[in-house]
Write a structure and sequence with these properties.
heterodimer, A: alpha/beta, Rossmann fold, 2 domains, seven-stranded parallel β-sheet, 52% helix, globular, B: alpha/beta, six-stranded parallel β-sheet, 6 strands
Chain lengths: 233, 178
């Protein structure tokens, strides 16, 4: 008899676990659907508060494009700013520093806010095979998580380098878990004319960016949820 | 203009850049007698190559004897000055140097590196070549491209504008337009 009741309680316990799991999964699914739905809607209307902004830089052309964009954004709305570039890339942060120095000279720290510069492990080097990319991607994700917990940005601006994928994925889970609501903007590099980059494609398919901008009309035809904005350079 | 009669030629520089990576095939293609002679025939007196991390070292030449004078260096913190002084630019397909050159209004031949794993770079060069802003070549077709090149057929590139993106972002975040 004793054995039987033990069985029964074990069964009901496992039922409870099952029910609980189903409940949690359902809530998470609803939350994800809500976030994906909210993606197409603008943020709370008229928000005069400055927003902490994460800017993901990539090598060479990527950084030039991003700085072009920053030049026309009102920096007093996007502060403080956190710049992240790959650990192997020294040039990009250097260029961002020069840009920030010029801002400070022009307007002063009270107006444009402060800036921080950070490096991140890269998920994939140019030319690295896709198989070894898996291991390096895991390391990159752990490091990205650490940085994201520290920064918790409200706005993320990125334009293509692989380093932005883990950051955007984490930002998405921060939204799901209610840790931080952020708006993610992805500007596809001008170098992409006919096909999105791997980063862009992933984030587009997974619905993880709020707005994805493309610089060539062919991409808009192919990816209708993207916004065509013409060339930035 | 002053091609005959051994008169002192105006210095016209061809600047070749491979960016921060290595692109030996391009350096090798420029460092052939045919290309050097053809460039000289077209009125270019000097070739300056930025070879980057490449292992192929081109042969330096200091006197012009029917072909252009060739010099090289590895890296420079900024290639802007070289671009400004050049009469013709031969570049790898990186968007950075492409747009830097186009904005200076210099004639440009972009040479696509076919050894890159993810060769999306040809997309941009081909699109801009279709719009007649530059010439697009491969290392093995560089010579022919120089022979066929008519810099007068190029259309000046109108620099782009980041304003539309900024407008989208501001509107999305609820900031007022201004």
């Amino acid at each position: 008899m004793e054995k039987g009741s033990y069985c029964l309680s074990a069964m009901s316990a496992s039922n409870l676990v099952l029910l609980f799991t189903i409940g949690v999964v359902t809530i998470v699914m609803i939350r994800i659907m809500y976030i994906v739905y909210r993606r197409s809607k603008p943020l709370n209307p008229k928000s005069p508060q400055p927003l902490s902004t994460l800017i993901v830089l990539g090598s060479g052309g990527h950084t030039a494009e991003m700085l072009n964009l920053l030049n026309v954004l009102q920096m007093e709305r996007f502060k403080p700013r956190f710049y992240i570039a790959a650990a192997t890339d020294n040039m990009s942060l250097q260029k961002a520093r020069v840009y920030e120095d010029s801002l400070l000279d022009k307007a002063g720290v009270d107006a444009v806010g402060r800036a921080e510069f950070m490096q991140i492990y890269r998920s994939r080097e140019v030319g690295q095979s896709y198989i070894t990319s898996i291991g390096t991607t895991l390391i990159a994700i752990a490091h990205a998580l650490w940085l994201m917990i520290k920064i918790r940005p409200k706005v993320i601006l990125c334009n293509g380098p692989g380093t932005c994928v883990p950051l955007c994925v984490i930002a998405f889970f921060f939204k799901v878990l209610g840790i931080r609501w952020s708006s993610v903007f992805y500007v596809e590099s001008i170098a992409r004319v006919r096909k999105l980059s791997l980063s862009g494609l992933l984030l587009y398919k997974l619905h993880m960016v709020d707005q994805l901008f493309v610089q060539w009309p062919k991409l808009k035809e192919k990816y209708p949820r993207a916004h065509y904005v013409g060339c930035l350079m | 203009m002053g091609e005959e009669g051994g008169t002192v030629k105006e210095k016209k520089v061809v600047f070749v850049t491979v960016g921060t990576t290595c692109f030996d095939a391009l350096v090798r293609a420029v460092d052939t007698p045919e290309v050097k002679k053809e460039l000289f025939r077209k009125g270019y007196t000097n070739i300056l190559i930025q070879i980057g991390r490449g292992s192929y070292i081109p042969t330096k030449s200091t006197v012009e004897n029917g072909s252009a004078v060739l010099e090289y260096f590895t890296f420079s913190s900024s290639i802007a000055d070289y671009l400004k002084e050049a009469s013709l630019v031969i570049s790898h397909a990186g968007s950075g140097s492409i747009f830097e050159t186009l904005r200076l209004g210099k004639p440009l031949i972009v040479v696509v590196n076919e050894d890159l794993m993810d060769n999306h770079q040809s997309e941009l060069a081909e699109e801009l070549a279709e719009r007649k802003h530059l010439f697009c070549a491969r290392p093995q077709t560089l010579y022919q491209s120089i022979v066929d090149m008519d810099t007068g057929s190029l259309i000046a590139y109108q620099p782009g504008d980041a304003e539309p993106v900024a407008k989208h972002i501001n509107r999305y975040l609820g900031f007022p337009d201004d």
